[in-house]
Amino acid sequence: MFPIKDLNRPLKTPHVNRLLLVVNIVIFAVYWLSSENIFLSRRFASNIEENFVMIPENIMQGRQLYTLFTSMFMHAGWLHLLGNILYLYIFGDNVEDVFGHGGYLIFYIISGLVASLTHIISVLFAPEIDNLIGVPQVSDLTIGVVGASGAISAVLGAYLVFYPTARILTAVFYGWVIIVPLPAIFFLGFWFLMQWLLVFFDITGGVAYWAHIGGFIAGMIFALVFGRGRKKTGDSQLGF
To answer: Cys bridge to 74: 31, 103, 146, 199, which one at CB 3.0-4.6 A?
Structure first.
């Protein structure tokens, strides 16, 4: 299944969500152009990798703690970037509606930090998780991590809490492509289930699924604790 758009128009202009989209695109474009020696230089791209990628071992030793933040705006490739941008574009504007511009930015950043810490914990306790579920886990603390996926997973979790019945126009691939409007609770529930299944069955690795899981759960909790009252107030004022 592949999301195309949600049938849930935002009530306010999503300035912060648009800013996040632009920042992610611009940072990756500069990095990619440098790595291809088209703009600036490959050395510049190498400096970005050395100084802004989050490496769990460094965080555990109290070094480069800022990379918990900077790594949220870096991506491993165009497909990685475009996938994240699509989900953020579809789901972020309505979540910003509820939290407000400043609240949404705080929510996004804190959720991204929680997701990164969830990944670090999963690596740190990889042997125990391996014994518990019987599936080998990434246990190398020196492998760098990049991507907005953790923060965007939190956006998905919050969207599920706020708009469970909103329709998501979805491309379903089953021999051919079928476009169907699915309730958010089904689409996002399926997405979350897939993250758990991929923890068990992804044999290639290379994706921080625990960060996705941690971010999604954090997004749901923050939405329930800080957002539900805001949404009810906004809905009553609008006559919904």
So the answer is: 146
Note whether 86 and 78 are within 8 A (CB). no
Under the banding of pLDDT at 50, 70 and 90, the label for residue 217 is: very high
Q: pTM (2 decimals)?
A: 0.89
Instruction: Say if residues 201 and 136 touch (Cβ distance below 8 Å).
Output: no
Specify the pLDDT at position 204.
54
Task: Write the burial class of residue 183 (CB in 10 Å: 0-12 exposed, 13-18 middle, 19+ buried).
Answer: middle
The CATH number assigned to the domain holding 232 equals 1.20.1540.10
Side-chain-side CA neighbours of 129 within 13 Å: the count stands at 18
Q: What is the rounded CA–CA span in Å between residue 17 and residue 105?
A: 8
Condensed to tens digits (0 to 9), the pLDDT of residues 127-153 reads 787 777 776 777 778 888 888 899 999
What is the residue type of 106?
I
Cα gap 200→202, rounded to integer Å: 6
The domain in which residue 72 lies consists of: 2-238
pLDDT bucket at 37, cuts 50 / 70 / 90: confident
Number of domains in the chain: 1
Buried b (16+ CB within 10 A) or exposed e, 2-41: ebeebebeeeeebebbeebbeebeebbeebbebbeeeeee
Q: Cα(239)–Cα(235) distance, rounded to whole angstroms?
A: 6
Tokens in use for 200?
């068990």
Give the model confidence (pLDDT) of 154-192 as tens digits.
Answer: 999 999 999 999 999 999 887 788 899 999 999 999 999
